[in-house]
Design goal:
By secondary structure, this protein is of the alpha+beta class. Among the domains are: 6-115, no CATH class; 118-124 and 243-308, no CATH class; 312-428 and 473-557, Gyrase A, domain 2. It has helices at 6-12, 32-40, 49-58, 68-80, 86-92, 97-107, 110-115, 128-135, 161-164, 169-197, 200-203, 209-212, 216-235, 253-263, 269-285, 297-303, 332-343, 350-358, 362-372, 402-408, 431-435, 438-459, 484-494, 501-517, 533-539, and strands spanning 118-127, 141-144, 244-252, 322-328, 393-401, 415-417, 475-483. A four-stranded antiparallel sheet has the order 4-5-7-6. A three-stranded antiparallel sheet has the order 1-3-2. α10 (169-197) runs antiparallel to α22 (438-459) and α17 crosses α19.
Length: 557
């Protein structure tokens, strides 16, 4: 490890958390392209990144040297806090700074460098279709405006310029406005409905001591907030894809670069325009990293549906909620046990452990799972922390509403596949809407039918833009493929009592479908026919692997 002077240490710690620790973090003042360029040196140079930083500050980067007196002043000003913009010290210490970064970005391991440089983005007033497109990127980590806690501005729709310039303009806008009106009405009606189900006088004794100790005004505020959250869960099903949202995400430069080129050829103008804005914004953060962003015709052809050459004319069928297991491994139990044994032993390849697991008795293999999960606590998310259990895969189709798909798509470690949004599959009519009365059902159905008519009218001329009018209640199939550890994580996180009633049902359906083909996840040799899933879970001998919450839907605070 390099030895630095006290002055150099103080200057370095403007950019890194420690000038001496073997593991350290880089602070926000270190520009992403600097981190990427100096990180790239690791593949050709054993020198610590901090050593390269000092060289850059002193103007000693080979081939890009600058005045050494400027470098000395850089170190002093950084150490004494005199630099208003620390990044300027780095740039002034590297002659022809941008050519340096471009050279090193392109010279060695271009893609590897881009992988370790992450760029934070924020999108405001983007549509739900933008959010869907972003969620398809498995390496994007994002947080989006909640449909539960935020009243969506239904006067603020994304209005596609091509549709607005067509003869469909008035009908298109009218369809969106009617959905907006009913969204507002449903929010109030659903809140009243839940208020009747759980009056304040009944709700209060169920609260914790802190809430019961509040003044009544604060209690009423909390109660109304929870009523509104429950109401928004119902009303969101009426929101069309044109409704705008806000979203923040971080993504590595390599994926950002790829998606800019891919999105430039997207059939939706909104996505094309977003690609340009992402390129502009990302280029200001890491100008040397986003190099290969020209429109990619191969990806454009795929986004545009291969110009209709793969279209199949299937008769629409009304969908229902449910889960279909599309493929699974008949040796999953033996393979899962073998993976876990392999993790805890020194000699033998996987095939030998698999043969060993095949020779074990059923109870002995269940014993392996019991031992692995013996100390698993409530907040221990994974069956196996090294994810050996995840090497055994299953593929399922979840038939649900678009609103639920919006949430389920966030399980980014799953591989996912889905088609265009449409109302041809029918729409989800939850029990709570029926409980609200026949007038509520009639209003809800009116919005769905009007949106369906508008979608059909649009899609001949605007097949992709037609999705903007499709409400979140529309049924939509989502194919997901993942490992068994992901299955149990999905089930545990999506069956919690405060979860949305729709995706809770999906998670129960997935759990039951998976256990039908893999009953050993519950310690069973065969799945019992004709028995409720919650009863199967309660009576199951193995509790530590699949852990769905069994109970009523709770109220979200």
């Amino acid at each position: 490890m390099a030895e630095f002077s006290d002055l150099e240490k103080r200057a370095l710690e403007v950019f890194v958390t420690s000038a001496t620790d073997s593991i350290y973090a880089c602070r926000a003042d270190l520009p992403p392209e600097v981190f990427g360029a100096f990180g790239s040196f690791f593949s050709r140079n054993p020198k610590d990144l901090r050593g390269h930083l000092v060289d850059a500050l002193r103007g000693k980067i080979a081939g890009h040297e600058s005045d050494p007196t400027v470098g000395e002043e850089n170190i002093r000003k950084l150490a004494t806090g005199e630099f208003n913009s620390p990044a300027e010290a780095l740039k002034s210490g590297v002659a022809k700074a941008q050519s340096f970064f471009r050279e090193w970005y392109g010279k060695y391991s271009h893609k590897s460098i881009a992988n370790v440089v992450w760029i934070p983005f924020v999108g405001t007033n983007v549509s739900q279709l933008f959010a869907r497109q972003l969620a398809d990127i498995q390496l994007a980590f994002f947080i989006e405006q909640s449909t539960r806690f935020v009243r969506f501005d239904v006067e603020n729709f994304y209005l596609d310029e091509k549709v607005m310039a067509s003869s469909h303009r008035d009908a298109f806008v009218g369809t969106l406005r009617r959905a907006a009106e009913v969204y507002e009405l449903f929010t109030e009606q659903a809140a009243d409905h839940y208020g009747r189900l759980l009056p304040f006088e009944t709700w209060l004794p169920q609260q914790d001591g802190a809430t019961r100790g509040m003044q009544e005004r604060q209690q009423q505020i909390k109660y109304r907030r929870e009523l509104k959250a429950k109401a928004f869960d119902v009303a969101r099903l009426l929101l069309p894809q044109a409704v705008r949202t806000n979203i923040a995400w971080i993504l590595d430069a390599r994926s950002t670069e790829f998606n800019i080129g891919a999105w430039k050829g997207h059939p939706l103008s909104e996505i094309q325009e977003s690609a340009q804005l992402i390129e502009k914004a990302g280029g200001q953060i890491a100008p040397s990293l986003l190099k290969y962003t020209e429109m990619n015709g191969y990806h454009a052809d795929q986004y545009r549906g291969f110009d209709g050459s793969l279209c199949v004319d299937l008769t629409p069928v009304q969908m229902t909620k449910g889960v279909d297991v599309l493929s699974y491994d008949s040796q999953a139990f033996d393979k899962a046990v073998a993976m876990l044994l392999m993790r805890s032993n020194r000699s033998g390849d996987f095939t030998r452990f698999l043969r060993h697991a095949g020779g074990m008795g059923f109870e002995e293999k269940v014993g392996v799972l019991q031992r692995v999960t013996e100390k698993r606590g409530h907040f221990d998310e994974w069956v196996d922390i090294e994810e050996a259990f995840d090497c055994v895969k299953i593929t399922a189709q979840i038939r649900t509403d678009i609103g639920s798909v919006r949430d389920l798509r966030r399980h980014q470690k799953w591989d996912r596949n889905e088609g265009l949004y449409t109302l041809d599959n029918g729409f989800y009519l939850p029990e709570v809407v029926k409980e609200m009365g026949s007038d509520a059902v009639a209003l809800y159905t009116e919005v769905m039918e009007r949106a369906s008519d508008m979608e059909r009218s649009l899609r001949g001329e605007f097949p992709h833009e037609a999705q903007y009018v499709v409400p979140m209640a529309a049924f939509h199939p989502l194919v997901m493929s993942g490992g068994l550890d992901q299955v149990q994580y999905f089930v545990a996180t999506r069956t919690t009592p405060q979860g949305h009633f729709s995706y809770r049902e999906d998670a129960y359906n997935l759990a039951e479908a998976v256990c039908t083909v893999h009953p050993w996840l519950l310690g069973l040799q065969e799945y019992p026919d004709g028995k409720k899933f919650e009863d199967v879970v309660r009576d199951a001998p193995l509790k530590g692997v699949l852990r769905p919450y069994i109970g009523e839907t709770g109220w979200h605070a």
